Automatic annotation (TrEMBL):
Source lineage: Bacteria, Pseudomonadati, Pseudomonadota, Gammaproteobacteria, Oceanospirillales
Source superkingdom: Bacteria
InterPro entries xrefs: DtrJ-like
Pfam families, per the entry: DtrJ-like (PF14348)
Protein known as: DUF4400 domain-containing protein
Residues annotated as transmembrane: 5-23, 119-139, 160-180, 186-205
Keyword vocabulary terms for this entry: Membrane, Transmembrane, Transmembrane helix
Keyword Transmembrane tagged: yes
Species for this entry: Marinobacterium aestuariivivens
Signal peptide: none
Length: 209
């Protein structure tokens, strides 16, 4: 299990590096707007407004109010006063600072997009609990029944249900950073499949007398 986890971590790192180095700053903006229209068409304008408000609150709390973005900006890009003090070198590296500013905007957009998808996940979470509760109950009852008869508790189903659940959750985490518009239906579908797999995991625990 350690190797797939490290693989996911490396994929996430590579994804973020590609976004920060190659993806244009306005690309993620367009993806956010397109995804927001998907949310409105599938869930309504109320859900779209709630997600936007929640993402705005989280973004301002972590990036603006904390001073992170401002500190990053003044650390990487010289102010007009600092440029004026560098006589004869005021315009040196201006293209580089423009590129850095664009990468900072790309980072800010990725963070904001992650918050919009986290808000969407939070919006779906109560409904998924309604599915998770009966899945856990059914799995527990199935396990108890198998303890009293000769039904087979499959270790293969148990093992691969856990693995597939883990892969789906990690894959969803990677998708949260993808600079493309995702259909909001993807999140509840993944969560529903995970609920079913968790039920299978519970129902195929090894028997203990």
């Amino acid at each position: 299990m350690k190797k797939p986890l490290w693989l996911v971590v490396w994929l996430l790192v590579i994804e973020l590096v590609v976004i920060l180095l190659l993806v244009p700053g306005d690309w993620t903006d367009k993806a956010i707007e397109k995804e927001s229209r998907f949310v409105e068409s599938n869930l309504g304008s109320g859900a779209r407004y709630w997600i936007r408000r929640k993402a705005d609150d989280w973004y301002h709390l972590t990036m603006i109010d904390s001073g992170f973005y401002e500190g990053m900006y003044f650390t990487l890009i010289p102010t007009e006063h600092e440029r004026a003090r560098s006589r004869g070198m005021q315009n040196m590296g201006s293209w580089w600072f423009q590129w850095v500013e664009g990468r900072m905007e790309a980072l800010a957009n990725v963070v904001y997009q992650f918050f919009t998808r986290s808000a969407l996940f939070l919006l779906w979470a109560p409904y998924m609990l309604i599915l998770l509760a009966p899945a856990l109950y059914d799995g527990a009852m199935t396990w108890k029944i198998k303890r009293t008869n000769f039904d087979y508790a499959s270790p293969v189903i148990h093992r691969y249900s856990i693995r597939l659940t883990t892969y789906l959750i990690l894959g969803l985490g990677i998708a949260f950073f993808a600079p493309i518009a995702l259909n909001p239906v993807i999140i509840p579908v993944v969560m529903m499949v995970c609920c079913v797999l968790i039920g299978l995991t519970m129902g195929n625990l090894q028997k203990r007398v």
